[in-house]
Amino acid sequence: MVNSQPLESRRESIRDLLDAELISAGDRLRFARSRVGEEHIATVSPEGRIVLPDGTEYDTPSDAAKAVAGTQVNGWIVWRTDANRTLASLRNQLRDTTTGTAQSDTPHQYLSEISEQLEAGESVSVTVRELLRHWNARSRGTRITRRIEKDLASQGIRTFPHFRDITLDSLVRFAIVDVEETSSPTNNSALKMHTLTSSEDENEDSDPPQNGLKVGNLASALGGVTSVTRDNTIDQAITLMQIDDFSQLAVLSPNRRNLTGAVTWKSIAIARHINPNATLRDCIIDASEISYNQELVDVLGVLRSVGFVFVRNEVNEVSGIVTAADLANAYGDMATPFFLIGELDKLLRHIVSSHVPFSDVVALCDPSGSREIKSFDQLNMGDYERTLQNPDAWNRLNTKLDRALFCKRLEMIREIRNDIMHFNPEDILSNTVEMLRNFLRMIRLNMPA
Fold first, then answer.
1. For the chain, which domains are there?
2. Most buried residue, 107, 200, 229, 382, by CB count within 10 Å?
3. Adjacent-strand bridge partners of 158
4. 83 contacts: CB under 8 Å, gap ≥ 6
5. For residues 145 and 23, what is the distance between their CA atoms, to the nearest angstrom?
6. Alpha carbons 292 and 265: distance in angstroms, whole number
7. Which CA distances in Å does 37 have to 31, 40, 75, 249?
8. % helix / strand / coil in the chain, to the nearest 5?
9. Strands, sheet with 171-176, edge to edge from the N-terminal-most edge strand
10. pTM for the structure as a whole
11. Taking CA 43 as the corner, what is the angle to CA 40 and CA 44, rounded to the nearest 5 degrees?
12. What's the whole-number mean pLDDT along residues 290-309?
């Protein structure tokens, strides 16, 4: 019997692939485990179950894969048809058909082509910005990041480094996910970030994780590093620092792989004060280093004590430097709109509480009483918007401003506020600070105190 529930309201199943004639009853499925030299065979039943050679049947691909592998595995990406199509790629094709999207224009088709190139042994690299373009995105908010991660996982591929952890114009290269490695209990956390487990893949209603800034999101972290070796002279080091107005240099081994220390204006001054004939070796101090995919907030302590830290990229090369100034700029860009939003919140709360009865506000913002609003302090930006959209409440303000235009801009600012509170700096418009300041100025000039 065909499932009559709308496909977009539930998770797809093997039965849906059968109904769409993307797979047929009796078709053979293969699960190759190259690392252990095994290949498991299964067939598709007329009821849409996965049947193993011993006759046991499983409702989901992941349950069948776990039964033969003995560990949690994403069955949608490991089971392949004789045409070498993963069940995930067939599911993606079904989704494209259901949404009426031309297959050649979908992210799924794009990733399918990438997968074919990787299977053929080709190397594929793109900038993060180019990758996002295939999802009609310009920034990496939590939801679009989650969507791309799930689409990558459904094709059994990942990006290296993770597209979230570097700048928009940095390159990522695609790689095929090693199923055995992702299911291994000794697997490292970096790889786990690139791969969804079967339970995550089959539960698409879970909330997306909130992503903090990574060291690699700073341009200076992957922008290259100016260095000297222990055999250079102090004059050479000073010249390099003055040419680009640097305060420190990395001291690398001749092959540029090993970081042996750093040279700074302060270390040069101290060495020469002790010995006017000091060499560059006398000026070298210890240097801290971190990985590009480390949380930026974790670097605060190091930068507070030493002022700079060198960064290693995904292939363990010294790729850049992060200074206290870089960190101040990164958080400063987010802090200004954050504080402006806070000021706007206080101002709107004062205006609403001064002119609109509390009972009216509750009736507009919590008519069912489920939120149990007890005071104006519990109101949020959405509540101000709902209140001021009401003509009676708006008229109490006795302002000449146009209500519809005011509330339209307030709606835009509410959405910006959500991005700011989730610390997604790329989702914040470039003119956000100017927009917030103008809105605050307009309220102060045209609304009663």
1. 9-202 (no CATH), 217-322 (3.10.580.10), 327-446 (no CATH)
2. 107
3. 175
4. none
5. 30
6. 26
7. 11, 10, 18, 49
8. 50, 15, 35
9. 125-127, 171-176, 157-160
10. 0.60
11. 140
12. 89
